[in-house]
Design goal:
Four copies of one chain form a homotetramer. Chain A is of the alpha/beta class. The first copy, chain A, has two domains: 130 residues, 3-Layer(aba) Sandwich (Rossmann fold); 174 residues, 2-Layer Sandwich (Dihydrodipicolinate Reductase, domain 2). The first copy, chain A, is built from eleven helices and 13 strands. The two termini of chain A are 38 Å apart.
């Protein structure tokens, strides 16, 4: 049934997200992987950079082609590149002949000024921002199905938005009185080290991260505007997010702990059950979202190696604060897995194709 | 100069806090360690339970004596026991002849009902609660100097209170209008696994904690009332704390990330510098508290193996939220180190005696 | 095509090997999982013991049935039990109606005295030892295909034997002169903590194993006679193994480093290429064995989450010593994966069914 | 008593060994630290590169001076540099006015050709090789006491030699018959990641080393000739070492497992007690060497943070193989600690000054 097979290329195949794309697509029943791109390893056999693929990808040699060069031979091109590059290489011609799924940040923010302020680089193709579809699979399924430029969300973003969407949709956030700022939603996020990428740096040296935890980029992490932008769309109102990422000595996983203290006049009789119902209702039928039983909260070990999002929710009556906790594997649902999910939606495949792995524990 | 040497006993010497007491006191110039207590290892040479002490403590055999039995021969008795036990073994007779430093929870809360509600056990000596001094060294130095019953604070508590005290003292918290509840201070805390003790359990099995992070006891951790009780004393007003502990795959260390969103009418012109000044002012001359430079935040690796508390503070103008971050070694400043510091204060020794180790990195 | 589906039961499904069996079999196209057995968790929903399976196995409740009770409804029964139990529960009646694959030690050694000496328990069914087939898939494929009692090899054993078999087969070991003992093959093995099982113990407490490495059971580990027994069958001569296991602070993985110093008169002109040829020849066509290129050696990260065995080999001319290094995932090729591989062989399925996962890195 | 204080400079103070020197010397009662050298961080406050030293070394700014420039003001200069640099900067003039303790490899091997072959660089001052003293404190104490050029041994080397010295001294190794090569001593060594230095590289990236173990530089690690050279001096006979290092996912620690299979005619009646007696005899009175009780073997956690060497020894009668296991903290006894110990010997201080820390566990 070769007829249904699409051809896929990956630009940036030797980083962690790229490797994960190769792993997932290697077994995809409807995808033929035709290009593993790497600028740094051009000409090198792929297995020499990632030993896990020995045998499976023995025949691949890393090449260095641009999206323009790949477009004619690929039905879908995945970009797993540092920010600022993709926007210089994508144009409408390319998007006419192929579908681009960008795992980077260039097409996520709709406001080019906001992009340039937070990322500190000039955007190479601002006219494409309005054409890009935000690839949060569960919440943008219909738009994704017909998009040729899909901006795959950031890892922290995916976990934060899915953990908060039902609450925001239900209006359970601080709203600003006229002329004042709303109180922010507090998002305290924790990530494994693979989130920082595979590039060598002293900050990701084993001995500098092992046996330690730290907060970083407090109030300045680039996923902040992305989370705010999308939650505002859901909310329909201005809304603020206080986002603090932390680095945890583990390979994979993101845990988001979000806090919404209710003001005294808000929802006097709300309960944990009410909150759980919001999640169950919004995520009904979603194969990859697991709303946990009351009193059970996510642990990253239970999602590692899978495309699952685990969410637990409680209302602390003593302090009248909503605490929502979400967990994902940052390289799968937070990157490559969601990219494949988006591809599956876009090409009409089974949405779970290649993504049905049960988490690997321990 | 044998004249200045006091005799110390440790009940619970084979747990992590107890071992750390042995380590610190072994080198203390004014302390002679006369009793290493362990119920489970009675009769066993101490080095057979903790190989690091070979040679240093070769002559010690674990014994199992009660505080009453130890009192006559000890100037100070350290208790490193699960909650509920100390309160059954301490009475005024014992306190007349010796100083008790309790690393457990029994004498920390002033309200016996609150104790019994949060700990779920009956308190064995409620009449002693008013006599106990809360052993937060930097903030209770004078009271500690003359106390015979010192309730050493919890690990999360120590880090949380020291990270927040200057803000609370300055009134920078949500205050309740009449008839309403104040918005809580959000404390998102992260701890290494040694905080859970040395006792075997599936929850602390290597494979169950390694490569994972989770929140636990959301809204119900027993350090919550302890933090609230003490911050209220500082504040002079009712105040609420939303406390969420997390388990991090590392041996030692606590990181506290605390959030205080300012309401619109509060402190319109406040800056990060203003906040840092509060810390510098309150902690001036404190040898173990390091208020970090602006823009620098704590990492547990920089305090591991030491009695230091590192604190970083920022005001996020975008969201008008104060973010304060603190780090300690949970077994030292969060347990044994602070206990020794309290002993030093109580007996008039150099407050840093045995506690001047530079952190061990990496 | 229900006709091809066999029914499988697992006794001991909540340990690490058992969980891995559930994970692998959940996706097996020809297997229906009908029983998840657990004595300790009888009556508990399976997902409450292993959160990774939420949704996937939501309907399973742990039961506690014996092999005899399961035999009528199961085509294959996997036993993942501590040693000494299986031999008391298996008899010829059971083996007439079902195939038993035992992941434990009871049916691996052919000599009942040796079993009783090394394991310190009485064997419950010594008459079955001659009927059991040693389940080292690549080397016993034909016997496995028709066996009803398959003794799945130990994790260290699998890795050690496969790493050494081509050398032993070629006679590259020390042979004893008449009346003397041969010099042993030195096997220095390193394992992740999951090899010690999921049962709680102080020895597997996170803080007791993290940030440390140790050798254990030097000269007395129970996989020693198993390795010797099988290598002697390959060799046809008496042969000794010096086996030293080490505990490494990681979840999964076994690395075996084996040394064979050649005596002065042996093989004067041998080269690394000669040795590699022995491996390539013996393992030709083996899907799960990857003989690495010259100069490349195994790392457990490249096999984690897969059924692969990676093997590197070199001849150090300076010392005239053969160094062979092998790596497996102890829970997959070292336990559950090989058990499924054996089931596939036994029932005529594709040998790689359910086992084609690419390693999960990082 | 300022009169006894010597002045010390460190060149290479921001690497792991250099940091450890700063930590140890900061508390040394007879040493004043006058220079923290760093080429990469010249002009930077030292605490900005190593946060653990905040307050303790707040006044230090990294400088970049040569040994020649430092010699006039320093009584002792520690070099913690990559190989090949020290030999270009040290000459007899410098050694006339100051004592140089080199933690690098340049002055360890006595044979300049062997150095140039194994290290692949030209030696800058071969005439100094005969003047350098090998700084293995316990075995070269007398020579160290009057040396002005001390070659501090490598980390693997220190652990390997001390673990094997009593056996080699007693002649318990394979001796070559005329015209043949001796069978090698097998040394299988395991190290934490700090052994690879602080410099960024993909190989020491957290995700590339965490959750994995590998052998590396099999038969070609540069500590091999150093071990052989020194053991031959002890033995008085030619002798070969098969040395295989492994990388373990932990910050600190080296474990050496060494194997000596006895040939059939050797020492027919030898016992474990006999072997222990050799160790006890050679290391009698050594404060930093702990010969463990029979049946107890080293674990790196019991020496972490200390200058201890733990050694366990057994004779496996079944295979007639001696197994000796040693453990050190690679940054202390394997680097900075031994350097300070050598300085103490050289300047007539208490040999344990600054080195009496009890290991930090957990």
């Amino acid at each position: 049934m070769e007829i249904n097979v699409i051809k896929a290329g990956i630009i940036g195949a030797t980083g962690y997200a790229g490797m994960e794309l190769v792993r997932l697509l290697s077994h995809h029943p409807e995808v033929s992987l035709v290009h593993l791109g790497s600028r740094s390893f051009e000409g090198t056999p792929y297995v020499d950079t990632v030993g896990s693929f020995r045998d499976a990808t023995d025949t691949y040699i890393c090449k260095n082609a641009t999206p323009r060069e790949l477009a004619p031979e690929c039905d879908v091109i995945f970009l797993a590149l540092p920010h600022g590059i993709a926007s210089q290489h994508i144009d409408e011609d390319i998007l006419k002949s192929t579908c681009v799924i960008d795992l980077g940040a260039d097409f996520r923010l709709k406001d080019v000024d906001m992009y340039q302020k937070w990322y500190g680089v000039k955007h190479g193709s601002p006219h494409l921002l309005s054409k890009s579809v935000y690839g949060l699979s569960e919440l943008e399924r219909d738009a994704i199905a017909s998009a040729n430029l899909i901006a795959n969300p950031g890892c922290y973003t995916t976990c934060s938005i899915l953990t908060l969407a039902p609450l925001v949709q239900a209006g359970l956030v601080s709203r600003a009185e006229t002329g004042t700022k709303p109180l922010p939603i507090i998002i305290d996020a924790k990530s494994g080290v693979s989130g920082a990428g595979r590039k060598e740096s002293q900050a990701s040296h084993f001995c500098e991260t092992n046996e330690s935890i730290k907060a970083y980029k407090i109030g300045s992490h680039r996923h902040t505007p992305e989370i705010e932008q999308y939650l505002q769309v859901i909310s329909g109102n201005p809304l603020a997010v206080q986002f603090t990422p932390h680095l945890v000595p583990m390979n994979r996983g993101i845990l988001v702990t979000a806090y919404i203290p209710l003001q005294s006049e808000q929802n006097p009789a709300i309960t944990t059950d009410d909150l759980r119902d919001l999640y169950i209702s919004l995520y009904k039928g979603e194969k990859f979202i697991r709303v946990l039983p009351k009193g059970v909260f996510p642990e990253t070990r239970w999602v590692k190696g899978s495309n699952f999002v685990d969410i637990g929710i409680t209302f602390d009556e003593r302090t009248r604060t909503i605490v929502a906790v979400g967990a994902i594997d940052n390289l799968i649902k937070g990157a490559a897995g969601q990219a494949v999910q988006n591809m599956n939606i876009r090409f009409g495949f089974d949405e779970a194709a290649s993504l049905d792995a049960i988490p690997l524990f321990p």
